[in-house]
Amino acid sequence: MEEVFSTRRKTETILRLAKQNGYVPLKELKSEMGLNGSTVYKIMKELMLRKVITIRNMKGNVSNAKECKLILPEDVRNAIIVIDKYFRNGGK
Fold first, then answer.
1. Which phi and psi angles does 71 have, rounded to 5°?
2. How far is CA 62 from the centre of its chain?
3. What is the pLDDT of residues 44-73, one digit of tens each?
4. Minimal CA–CA distance to 86: which of 26, 6, 23, 20?
């Protein structure tokens, strides 16, 4: 039960950040969700492979990429479905 709540919360956090900003700032994603750089990198890689996101302004590596932005497509629902599945499958 706790895992489902956690999954839902993560997905909702990403959706909220995306709606607020039009993109997901990695720094906020890391701080709000308590993710480390490695986890953020895995999420980004997964979403890029599925062509859900593009990355802009990447400076430095993922763990300290303060200026990196995940640009979500206009149809954010597709992105959120993928993110949600990602967390539900334990990051696979």
1. -90, 115
2. 12
3. 666 666 655 555 544 444 444 444 555 555
4. 6
